[in-house]
Amino acid sequence: MPIGRSEEITPDIVVHRVGGGNVANLRLSLLDAQQTPPGISVLLHGTPQEAAAQMRRAFPGSRKWRETAHTVGTTTAAAIREAGFDIIPDPTTRFPNHARLIHPQGVAGFADENLVTLAATFHDTVGC
Amino acid sequence: MARYVGHSLDLMDTAQRQIGQMRIERHEEDLLSGTFMPGPVFPNVEHLFHEFEAAVEAQALHVIETLDATIAALGLHLQWPDAREPITVQDVQIWSDGTITCRLCEQPVASAKAVPHAKSSCQTAEKTNRRT
């Protein structure tokens, strides 16, 4: 499925990062860094509990995601943009509500000092 | 629901090569879970499942889309030993700890609506069925 445009995600849309909105969980993995544009996966809409449930349903055999109590970081598209990052729709077959959190400077934009600002916009919900 | 539980089924590809065996331990709606025992052909495709697992662990969901399509193209299906009739499945996931899950293609309408799955490999398996 094609990647969408930033304008398609309106400022009030809720954004979830399963695993929490801490700096360590917002860093680019090697796989994320190889994408065009580089970015991390987030899920749009719904509740933190629904985001965690989506991961469990999609990967029922995964040791990491089959656990029942996850932390989920939640923010909004507006807050992400205010922190200097951006978000674009990137729907997949498994996750139609998937989006990619990116930075205008690409990989370099995911430096820790920027991630600290980004992490401050997230509110974590535990036990999802 | 208990039809499959406790049984070991052959996991075959579209060329009717045995990838391994799945010992089924749970059957919930369309989801089968169990233990995977690799067969002689598994090393040919093992890297796909390792890459899939790495992407899942890293939550790199955009990477998984591509791997889903590659794995679906293998046309994996289950088969009772000594039987020619395949059991069409999709979304086969094999994990490094020996866990395997897949979803039956013939499923209740309600559960089919509940979860969007990977690109279906059911059509491929059905083609295999017609060929054999």
Structural features, described:
The complex is a heterodimer of chains A (128) and B (132). Chain A contains 5 helices and 6 strands. In chain A, a hairpin with an 8-residue loop joins strand 4 and strand 5. Chain A has helices spanning 23-26, 30-33, 48-58, 77-82, 112-119, and strands at 14-18, 40-44, 72-76, 86-89, 98-102, 123-125. Chain A has 128 residues and is an alpha+beta fold. Chain A has one domain (6-125). The longest helix of chain A is centred in the middle third of the chain and has 11 residues, at 48-58. Chain B has 132 residues and is α+β, with helices and mostly antiparallel strands. Chain B has one domain (8-108, 115-121): Thrombin, subunit H, CATH 2.40.10. Chain B has 4 helices and 6 strands. In chain B, strands 1-2-3-6-5-4 form a 6-stranded antiparallel beta barrel. In chain B, helix 1 (42-57) packs antiparallel against helix 2. Chain B is globular. Classes of the chains: A alpha+beta (128), B alpha+beta (132). The interface between A and B is medium-sized, with 28 and 28 residues.
List the helices and strands and how they pair.
The complex is a heterodimer of chains A (128) and B (132).
Chain A: E1 14-18, H1 23-26, H2 30-33, E2 40-44, H3 48-58, E3 72-76, H4 77-82, E4 86-89, E5 98-102, H5 112-119, E6 123-125
Antiparallel strand pairs in A: 1-2, 1-3, 2-5, 3-6, 4-5
Chain B: E1 8-12, E2 18-28, E3 31-38, H1 42-57, H2 61-72, E4 77-79, E5 86-94, E6 99-104, H3 109-114, H4 122-131
Antiparallel strand pairs in B: 1-2, 1-4, 2-3, 3-6, 4-5, 5-6
Number of strands of chain B: 6
Q: Under the CATH scheme, which class of chain B?
A: Mainly Beta
Which quaternary structure do these chains form? heterodimer
What would you call the shape of chain A?
Answer: globular
Amount of helix of chain B: 25-40%
Task: Supply the number of structural domains of chain A.
Answer: 1
Largest interface: A-B, 28 and 28 residues
Distance between the termini of chain A: 29 Å
Average of per-residue pLDDT values of chain A: 95
The low-confidence parts of chain B are 108-115, 124-132
Structural class of chain A: alpha+beta
Question: How would the global form of chain B be characterised?
Answer: globular
**Main sheet strand line-up of chain A:** 4-5-2-1-3-6
